[in-house]
Design goal:
elongated, five-stranded parallel β-sheet, IstB_ATP-bd, 263 residues, ATP-binding, IS21-like element helper ATPase IstB, nucleotide-binding, alpha/beta, DNAC/IstB-like
Length: 263
């Protein structure tokens, strides 16, 4: 190949890479071609290698976008979680959830227990994995979801919002029970949960056992109907112990415990 021909080929590849919106092909094809010549690859092997670079980069870019759009307050991973602080949480059960099969089956995951015991960390970690696996994920607190639903209802756009949220394979509802929910808002939240029953997955965290969800939602009947749908296809984990954020801090833990007991 003459130098002029080589330059023309480079220009054509660069143009085609831009036209296909495949910048990694444009930047990496020459280096891969050198490897192919040294290794006596077939044409098919070279083509597969070039396409693989672009496909991998696109997958990673898509994952980053889904994670960003999910609205996680912080990015937490399962690998970062210290399971020694929660011996009641079976690492094997969490590992099975990391495969993502439960989302395909529209299952749910529930983390119950005191504040500061890692519920949000595990919920976020599973959500991040789901986003990397290609699922659409959205995260908010229970109060945040209630605000969204109430605002949509007041604008006459509730059906549109619920339809939009049904396009997400996984919704994460954090901190159920931290803020009391009025009856009208509880009914809106019930519509969200009911609409996802056997159609889409939920991860929920709560500081209250299911028996006390009536206190949070202000209506025992609505709470019971909601719990019935949530737990039907759910993996439920119960966290124990004291908040890791204050455990071991000398002089802080006793005063916090005493204050809670006083109230």
């Amino acid at each position: 190949m003459t130098r002029a021909h080589h330059t023309a080929t480079e220009s054509e590849v660069a143009y085609l890479a831009r036209a296909l919106k495949a910048p990694r092909i444009g930047s990496d094809y020459a280096a891969i071609a050198a490897q192919a010549r040294d290794g006596s690859w077939t044409y098919e092997e070279y083509l597969a290698a070039v396409l693989s670079v672009e496909a991998s980069a696109r997958a990673e870019s898509g994952a980053r976008g889904r994670i960003r759009r999910a609205g996680f307050p912080q990015i937490k991973t399962i690998d970062e979680f210290d399971f020694s602080t929660q011996p009641t949480i079976d690492r094997g059960r969490i590992a099975r959830l990391e495969t993502g099969g439960w989302i395909t089956e529209a299952g749910n995951v529930i983390f119950l227990g005191p504040p500061g015991t890692g519920k949000t960390h595990l919920a976020t970690g599973l959500g991040v994995i789901a986003a990397r696996q290609g699922y659409r994920v959205a995260f908010d607190t229970a109060a945040g979801w209630i605000t969204r639903l109430t605002q949509a209802h007041n604008r006459g756009e509730l059906d549109g919002l619920l339809k939009k949220l049904n396009g997400y394979q996984l919704l994460i509802v954090d901190e159920v029970g931290y803020v009391p929910i009025e009856a009208d808002a509880a009914n809106l939240f019930f519509q969200l949960v009911s609409g996802r029953y056997e159609r889409g997955s939920l991860i929920m965290t709560s500081n209250l056992p299911f028996s006390r969800w009536g206190e949070c939602f202000g209506d025992i009947t609505v709470a019971a109907a909601m719990v019935d749908r949530i737990v039907h296809h759910a993996e439920i984990f119960t966290h124990k112990g004291t908040s890791y954020r204050i455990a071991g801090r000398e002089g802080v833990l006793p005063s916090v415990v005493a204050e809670r007991q006083a109230h």
